[in-house]
Amino acid sequence: MSSTPRASDAAAVQAPLIEARDLRVAFQMQRGVFQAIRGVSFSLGREKLAIVGESGSGKSTVGRAIMRLNPPSAIVTAERLTFKDVDLLSASKKELRRLRGRHISMIMQDPKYSLNPVATVGEQIAEAYRTHHKVSSREARERALTMLEAVQIRSPKRVYDLYPHQVSGGMGQRIMIAMMLISDPEVLIADEPTSALDVTVRLQILAILDDMVKERGLGMIFISHDLNLVRSFCDRVIIMYAGRIVETVAAADLDNVQHPYSRGLLNSLPRLDQKRDRLPVIQRDDSWLEAV
Amino acid sequence: MTAISVKNLSIVFGEEDNETKVLDAVSFDVEKGEVFGLVGESGSGKSTVLRCIAGLYTHWTGEIRIDGQPVGAQLTKERCRKIQMVFQDPYGSLHPKHTVQTTLAAPLRIHGIGDIDRRITEVLRDVGLAPHLRFRYPHQLSGGQRQRVAIARALILRPSILLLDEPTSALDVSVQAEVLNVLSDIRDREGLTYLLVSHDLAVIGHMCRRLAVMQQGLIEEVVDYADLSGGRAQQAYSRMLFDASHHYDRSMANDITAARQAGGGTIHGA
Ligand SMILES: Nc1ncnc2c1ncn2[C@@H]1O[C@H](COP(=O)(O)OP(=O)(O)OP(=O)(O)O)[C@@H](O)[C@H]1O
Ligand SMILES: Nc1ncnc2c1ncn2[C@@H]1O[C@H](COP(=O)(O)OP(=O)(O)OP(=O)(O)O)[C@@H](O)[C@H]1O
Ligand SMILES: [Mg+2]
Ligand SMILES: [Mg+2]
């Protein structure tokens, strides 16, 4: 276990890095408007805060709202949406560009889609470094190679020159992580950052993220489907359902969640050491859509 | 009967002076109706094995037999109908400008199959997608919804072999349970054979009796899941994979780093 839930709650109260109050995101569709996020409030300190919840519940949309990277069809409103004392909703494009990467960074759920298909992955990592640091291209290349090594890529020199379609799923994911590491942000939104990694590499990557939180005071939002991982890796857990938060618990108390949806999530996990014929699926209830 | 037989499958990428051997004499057999697992290191060649079997690469050497018949490197229409693949990356595998409807209708049209509307309705129900989603484009779907479209596309031709590359790693656990149940049902009903790649050993254990463990283009061993979970795997790497699956553990992460450094990147030892 990392830090106790109480300590991390205190951290969140002391100096929130991110604060969201009554965050709402709606998408303008051909016929009418779709409310994807329907009033979400939380704050992030120098801690590992997990967001779990079913597919489509709005986890990535929350992450993108903080980055202000929702598509033009999105209408984002909030009583408050801040990074430290910067109001993210009224910040200028220029200000947002300054914040992204250097201060708030996001590892996207679909790494290959987020990479430029016509540049080598190494060039893209080096470029991420040069956006915020005035260094020679040789130095940027050296830094990029070091980062590829840090994320456990075998033969970094070979991989530096590969294009996104030539790397495996887990390599793509680690390239995104290397790009994030090289810019050393204060807040990291990691959207399923390790879903394509084998468990041994995953542990090594998580250890790097863990160090960034403990040693450099990084605040991390960790979006994940992996409840066992979240339970052991994060400090607090937000459980989302249909665009709302249904429950927030200390990670250590994840087994004691109350909401029937949260309980259903735990039950549907396959077990490493116990075979079941069928996995229980969640029987949804319309009352869960109402405010909690 | 053996549904898939792979012998000495090797493949090399890159130009002459810069070659990488991505698969090195990979061999395994999958029985008809079996769910066979493929696990291992990221970048070890799991997707590449699937792509060779699916006919997406043509420059491999060795032998691949389907239902006892050797297949050539070229992709025939019949092979395409018999073997379908669900890709690892749910964004990249769907055409961004095609609606769900168009995506699902395309394989039916190519193979001259009628009754398109009914088949699409059925397959959407099978994978647990609401009917109204058929008019959406990929960017209007969540990650998990997209992956279910990809599974629906693979199922719509009623193949006998499904190659599943991390089919549920983009799904939340409740939808994962639904999709795994769907896959089990379809297999029970129609006797399909699955080759399942996953990093999640609990998923492998739920679906498979046997699995192959890969590292750096090689099959380390083919092992019964019961032996793996009982600590009786032959290879140190296999045992480490299982041990590292339980939860996040900082000292375990350090052990893995040490083992990799000692083995020059590879985890060796029996
Ligand atoms: N550009 C868009 N236009 C219309 N609807 C959208 C758009 N982007 C997302 N949505 C919808 O908003 C909801 C939330 O999507 P989001 O991607 O945030 O889900 P998620 O919780 O991250 O799911 P997953 O676990 O599958 O990634 C979904 O119903 C999705 O279909
Ligand atoms: N077109 C290509 N050109 C060059 N190298 C390639 C190409 N396709 C794959 N490779 C290399 O082959 C190796 C194996 O890739 P593969 O995608 O099969 O791995 P994987 O086991 O599926 O990994 P993951 O679990 O991360 O998805 C990688 O080192 C990759 O860089
Ligand atoms: Mg998402
Ligand atoms: Mg792969």
TrEMBL record, chain A:
GO terms for molecular function: ATP binding; ATP hydrolysis activity. Its main location: membrane. It is a peripheral membrane protein. Residues 18-267 form the ABC transporter domain. The keyword ATP-binding applies. One of its GO terms (biological process) is transmembrane transport. CDD domains: ABC_NikE_OppD_transporters (cd03257). It is found in: Cell inner membrane. It holds the Pfam family ABC_tran. GO terms for cellular component: plasma membrane. The keyword Cell membrane applies. PANTHER family: DIPEPTIDE TRANSPORT ATP-BINDING PROTEIN DPPD, OLIGOPEPTIDE TRANSPORT ATP-BINDING PROTEIN APPD. Belongs to the ABC transporter superfamily. This is ABC transporter ATP-binding protein. It comes from Oryzicola mucosus.
UniProtKB/TrEMBL annotation, chain B:
GO terms for molecular function: ATP binding; ATP hydrolysis activity. PROSITE patterns: ABC_TRANSPORTER_1 (PS00211), ABC_TRANSPORTER_2 (PS50893). Gene3D superfamilies: P-loop containing nucleotide triphosphate hydrolases (3.40.50.300). This is Glutathione import ATP-binding protein GsiA. The keyword Zinc does not apply. Keywords: ATP-binding, Cell inner membrane, Cell membrane, Membrane, Nucleotide-binding, Translocase, Transport. Its EC number is 7.4.2.10. Belongs to the ABC transporter superfamily. Glutathione importer (TC 3.A.1.5.11) family. It is a peripheral membrane protein. InterPro entries: AAA+_ATPase, ABC_transp_ATP-bind, ABC_transporter-like_ATP-bd, ABC_transporter-like_CS, P-loop_NTPase. GO terms for cellular component: plasma membrane. One of its GO terms (biological process) is transmembrane transport. Residues 6-241 form the ABC transporter domain. It is an enzyme of class 7 (translocase). PANTHER family: GLUTATHIONE IMPORT ATP-BINDING PROTEIN GSIA, TRANSPORT ATP-BINDING PROTEIN. Pfam families: ABC_tran. The complex is composed of two ATP-binding proteins (GsiA), two transmembrane proteins (GsiC and GsiD) and a solute-binding protein (GsiB). Coiled coil: none annotated. It catalyses: glutathione(out) + ATP + H2O = glutathione(in) + ADP + phosphate + H(+). It is found in: Cell inner membrane; Membrane. Part of the ABC transporter complex GsiABCD involved in glutathione import. Responsible for energy coupling to the transport system. It comes from Oryzicola mucosus.
